[in-house]
Design brief:
7 helices; 179 residues; single chain
Amino acid sequence: MSEYGKVGWDVGVVGRWVRLVLGTLLIVFVIFDFSGVDHTHSLRTNLLIALFFVAFIAAYSVVYLVVVDKVKHLSPWVATAIFVFPAIYFSAVNPFMVPAEWSFGYLIGLPYVNHPLLIAMALYIGISFPVQFFTRYGGCEVVAIQNLIFKKECSSYCVPLLPIDVVEKAVVDAVAKRR
C-alpha cells in the first residue's frame, strides 16, 4: 500500500478540498435556485424537492445495504456503475440531454417533477461532497452519506474526480518513494 492509500477508497488533500469546493458550489446553486429573482417555488415544488431528497437517501440506502457486501470483492467499477447511473440520469441526462417529452416527469405523466428532481439530486450530491471531505472518503460521492450512516465504506470511484485522485496518488507515491 502506498502513502496515499487506494484510489476509490482514500482521498488526498487536493481531492478533499476539491470535493468541499464542489459541494459548496452545488449547495450555493440550490440556495440561489430558491432565492432566484426570476421565479419562486410553489409549496408543491418545495414539498417535491424535500420528498425527492429523502427518497434519494432512502433509495441509495436500500441499494447500499443490498449491494455493498455482494460486490465488495469485485472491481470498484461495479459499485460505481450501480450507484452513479441514477445520479447521472437525474442530474444530467433527464434535465439537459433528453427532449422534454422523453424526460422522467413526462414519462410518468408528471412533467412538473423534472425541476424538483434536479434540485433534490443537486442538494444530495452537494451535501455528499462535504461529507467526503470530513470523512476522508475518496469513492463515489453518492454513497458518502450511506457510508457515514452505516459506518462502513464502499470502494467505488467518483468518476468526474477520478483523474484528480489518480494524479494526486501518483505525486504522493513518487514523493514518498524519493524519501
